[in-house]
Write a structure and sequence with these properties.
Structural class: mainly alpha
CATH topology: Proton glutamate symport protein
Strand content: under 5%
Bound molecules: aspartic acid
Amino acid sequence: MATSGKTRLALHWKILIGLVLGVVVGVVINQVWTEATWHALGVDEPASYIATGRAHVPQGVDLSSLTRDQIAEQYPNAGAGAAAACARLGRQFNGFVGDLFLRGLKFIAVPIVLFSLIVGASSLNDLSRLGRIGLKTIGIYLCTTALAITIGLVFANVFRPGSFVNQETRESLVAQFGAEATGKIAAAKSPDVWSTVLNIVPTNPFEALAKGEMLQVVFAALLVGICLTLIPKEKAGVVIAVCDAMNDVVIKIVDLVLMLAPFAVFALIVKVVADMGLNVLGALAVYSLVVVAGLATMMFVVYPAVFVPVAKVRYGRFFRAMSPAQLLAFSSASSSATLPVTMECAQERLGVHEEVASFVLPIGATVNMDGTALYQGVAAVFIAQMYGMHLGWGDQLTIVLTATLASIGTAGVPGVGMIMLVIVLQSVGIPLEGIAVILGVDRILDMCRTSVNVTGDCMVCAVVAHSEGALESEESVRRRSASREAMGMDEQPRGGMG
Ligand code: ASP
């Protein structure tokens, strides 16, 4: 984008560069910086050194019961050299940048939903329209999720990834990840439909805000917004004006947080890639490829097949507008943390009106997990194939139903999709031990499925907005951002987003 005679790189390119550099640096660290490197720097136990700063843990001594000063006094040589200290500092700084960014996003997730939805609902002035939008949203979300699982099942049945893992590999993976898998299996609990629905109504709205219970926040904001239309205008106007101004403040904070995005994406990706053993990926290459191929089909074929003809949004326009959210979803593996950016992209870059975006997207980030559902379909069939189990039509239909429910019950945070997979496996009697086999590659697949989860929310948002006449034309979005630039707002990060 050319501004004031100089060319500025759009945000999604900056994030992409951060991501690619993160992968490269992460792979180099993973390959070059081994345990032997730490030993050469005088560190006995790298993990404990990184966590505690103690390079030599004296045998049989429980240091956790001592204070920092006591350790320094009693075990003066528990430190390492300057090179090791620098490496530790680098890791800590890297973690700090990534966490700071994620905290920033979580900081704004609740206020952005609250204020924009109050303003949106109070401007609707029409309860039947709200009901219609709600029904459309939930209906389309359910259909896309069921479709996603079906695609997952078809891919897994056609490519049979389970037949590529021999018993020896399976047993070694179970031995390596068994303990961690047991923890995940214990954490799974079946979603109960009634209590899930009941739970949307908060008993204390302030508690809902404090705990970030997104569906409850949506409910409370809608209720407040609707009731604002039922009280005298002079009183309602004050509240709406305050919420509107607060909304602008929150959006400004999103812009500020986004300035950190390229660096944060780099930091998050370096950590994941550096920590991930590439050997595991090798053993599960076919399974991972099938999951990624299914997700790519959903993202690049199925969604466009809906939004291009139905919402009349061009292929390139959609992906250009939503790419910052997709890339952040990939880097953070959390659709909840990505929500503020998803909302910003949908409103500012795609041109969805506030009242639709602020309703459809928070609900989507909480209940619509197409990528997770697809992954659960592939994973269930993969594990069954590995254990030589035949799954009939009835079993596969059961998987579609339970995976739909399980994905609704999946929170938009890293790794929960795998915990909910336990319920899917249980529903058709597939050995839960299989979780241990796929655990090693879960993080990378989580990143991919989270991108699809977020893309699915945006697709439904565009479709609902178009059907309600709440989607700006491409031309109008372009004119709006051009006029913002002309007003000098292009110095702000938002002006540089696309
Ligand atoms: N990480 C996913 C999300 O946030 C959920 C999952 O599949 O684990 O959307």
